[in-house]
Amino acid sequence: MTKPDSSFKKTTSQWSKIKASWRGLKKIRRLPELDDLQMQNQQLKREIDRLRASLEELKRRAETEWDLALDGPGAGTFDDFYFAFEEHFRGSRELVKSRLGIYLPYVERIRGINASLGFLDIGCGRGEWLEFLKENNIAARGIDLNQRMIDETQARGLESERADVLTFLRKLPDDSLCGISGFHIIEHLPFAVLMTVLAEARRTLAPGGVLILETPNPENFIVGACNFYVDPTHHHPILPAALGFMLSQVGFKQYECLQVSLPDYLGGTEGVPSSGVLKALAEHMTVGQDYAMITFKPRIN
């Protein structure tokens, strides 16, 4: 058995060592080098705050200068610019609507879902798809960040509102939509935002609900190398295989890829050799200028 005196002395000795170590640490903390580092750290924090404030001011000025720089009938803001841009490059409303019939069979498949559930069009633009759905007795509403687009759709008696896609989707309950569409919207989104949108679409769709996403097709060489970059607000092209993989990662089990807007500037592959470089080149020149990825939320068994 250890004697009490021995235990006390041992404990006292350990405490003395701890106090000595603590005094050493306090001396280290008082080193001028550490004081200098702390001062530099505070200066860096102040500089970061200053730069952040400057960045916000630059953004505000850029938006103001952008608004002032634009000129011409109906111009003056970015919304006005992009509305005019769509009018010039996307084609007339009649042309766009004439291409939407290929999606009707997929829309027909959701009619058995609860009739009270609505259809959401993300980035509804001028409202061609909303109008198409209304004509086919599908209750739909659209969202867009561009106020000029919203004004256009509302003037036609279509339900729409100015809203950010993630903010809007996150407010919706689970299984609350029979369909979601996005025509030429995903190429405008950063990758992290796109993946979140896909996950939110999976959550908010009712079982059996449809997701339709149309986007420029980079497998068409003219689109991938040239036409995609006409729109300065595009982020990057998305290959069909990549989009299919993204869908699978958020829980969509199966999907179908449609070739859309087949080019009319070439005579197809007739007369092209059946193999070799020319055949491969012809195939990539004549595939759809756009493609649509269509998937349904799995039904609960």
Task: Characterize the structure shown.
The protein is α/β, with parallel strands linked by helices. The protein has twelve helices and seven strands.
| Number of domain units | 2
Determine the fraction of residues in helical runs and give it as a percent range. 40-55%
What is the straight-line distance between the termini?
72 Å
- CATH fold annotation of the largest domain: Rossmann fold
Series of H and E elements: HHHHHEHEHEHEHEHHEHE
Query: Outline, from the CA principal axes?
Result: extended
CATH class of the largest domain: Alpha Beta
The rounded Rg comes to 30 Å
Assembly status? single chain
Low-confidence stretches: none
Mean pLDDT: 82
Record field, number of beta strands: 7
Count up the helices. Answer: 12
Strand content: 5-15%
Major sheet = 7 strands, mixed
Annotation keywords:
single chain, 301 residues, alpha/beta, Rossmann fold, seven-stranded mixed beta sheet, 12 helices, 7 strands, 50% helix
Q: Would you kindly provide a brief summary of this structure?
A:
This protein is an alpha/beta fold and 301 residues long.
